[in-house]
Task: inverse folding
């Protein structure tokens, strides 16, 4: 009888594992995928859309060839309709053709990552994590600023942290810990906050040990931050508030057409290029406000609805919800829509977490 119970338990565990795995990718595709992802990562420094086009093209092709139907079909359909509506608003608005394509491409990355995680599953990690880790080891460095040394690429480390949050086995916390240390050393406040939100989804909040260890860890991290990472506690806005106020005034004084359909894709950078501080500031550093300004009331309503659909689709999994919420938070004070590799990593991690939890529930 005991042997029968053990047999059925092992069988259930294998079934759950298979559901989390979804459609295993062939070895040749995993290896070639690492090469393609490596190429897209090294193209980041070149700027432009080349890196994102490779990223999107590869994963859309994989979805077309290897994806299978999933339980979230109604959510996928609703999200597709919202995304199509937002793309229509962008296409109908002002702005150069190339800027419209760039914005549409940026908008596609997170949903594509989420679909890949849900439909393909854990095989995504085999394509992303090895080359991601290698690239960060080779390209990361400390940069001297007027606020001290800072580790570069905080959002790539943040994307790596999201991927590590769905890794299985004892190596999960080691990889997550290394990513967390790198994010702290970047002294990027919004990245640290997003990491904490992601971490909330990883730990068992009902465990007394979690609270004990967590309290000690927070105390140590706070002490280290005060003495060695002072930028984390600075309250200045790097000029953001003044720019936001200027753009808010522009939007309020715009025509009815501009209020409803926005000033057009690329209008934020075009206007900012006339500022003397543009070279140092670069962008608006608020993607939610940017969507309002460039796509108007119609666009921002679809934007908020799209986020609601994605979060609702994974609502049964705390980790998946936390990952998506962490991305939303970064968009309050940064240009997260431009960070394609970060977005696709978070989408995949949320999708994998959602799919594996669903498989566990059915098991």
Result:
């Amino acid at each position: 009888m005991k042997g029968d119970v053990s047999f059925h338990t092992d069988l259930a565990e294998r079934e759950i594992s298979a559901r989390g795995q979804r459609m295993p990718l062939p070895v040749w595709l995993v290896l070639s995928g690492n090469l393609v992802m490596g190429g897209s990562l090294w193209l980041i420094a070149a700027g432009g859309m080349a890196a994102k086009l490779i990223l999107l093209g590869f994963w859309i092709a994989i979805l077309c060839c290897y994806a299978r139907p999933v339980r979230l079909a109604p959510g996928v359909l609703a999200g597709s309709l919202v995304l199509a509506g937002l793309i229509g608003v962008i296409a109908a608005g002002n702005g150069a053709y190339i800027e419209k394509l760039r914005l549409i491409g940026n908008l596609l990355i997170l949903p594509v990552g989420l679909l890949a995680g849900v439909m393909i599953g854990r095989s995504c990690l085999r394509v992303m994590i090895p080359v991601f880790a290698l690239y960060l080891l080779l390209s990361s460095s400390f940069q001297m600023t007027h606020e001290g040394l800072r580790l570069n690429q905080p959002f790539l480390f943040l994307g790596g942290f999201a991927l590590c949050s769905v890794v299985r086995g004892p190596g999960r916390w080691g990889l997550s810990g290394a990513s967390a240390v790198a994010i702290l050393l970047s002294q990027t406040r919004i990245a640290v906050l997003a990491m904490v939100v992601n971490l909330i989804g990883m730990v068992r909040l009902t465990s007394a040990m979690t609270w004990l260890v967590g309290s000690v860890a927070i105390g140590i991290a706070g002490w280290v931050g005060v003495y060695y990472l002072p930028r984390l506690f600075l309250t200045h806005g790097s000029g953001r508030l003044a720019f936001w106020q200027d753009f808010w005034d522009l939007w309020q004084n715009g025509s009815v057409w501009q209020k409803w359909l926005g000033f057009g894709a690329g209008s934020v950078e075009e206007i900012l290029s006339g500022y003397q501080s543009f070279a140092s500031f670069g962008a608006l550093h608020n993607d939610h406000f940017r969507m309002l300004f460039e796509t108007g009331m119609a666009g921002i309503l679809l934007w908020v609805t799209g986020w609601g659909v994605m979060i609702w689709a994974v609502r049964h999994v705390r980790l998946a919800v936390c990952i998506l919420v962490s991305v939303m938070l970064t968009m309050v004070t940064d240009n997260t829509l431009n960070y394609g590799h970060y977005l696709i990593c978070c989408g995949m991690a949320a999708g994998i977490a959602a799919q594996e939890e669903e498989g566990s529930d059915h098991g």
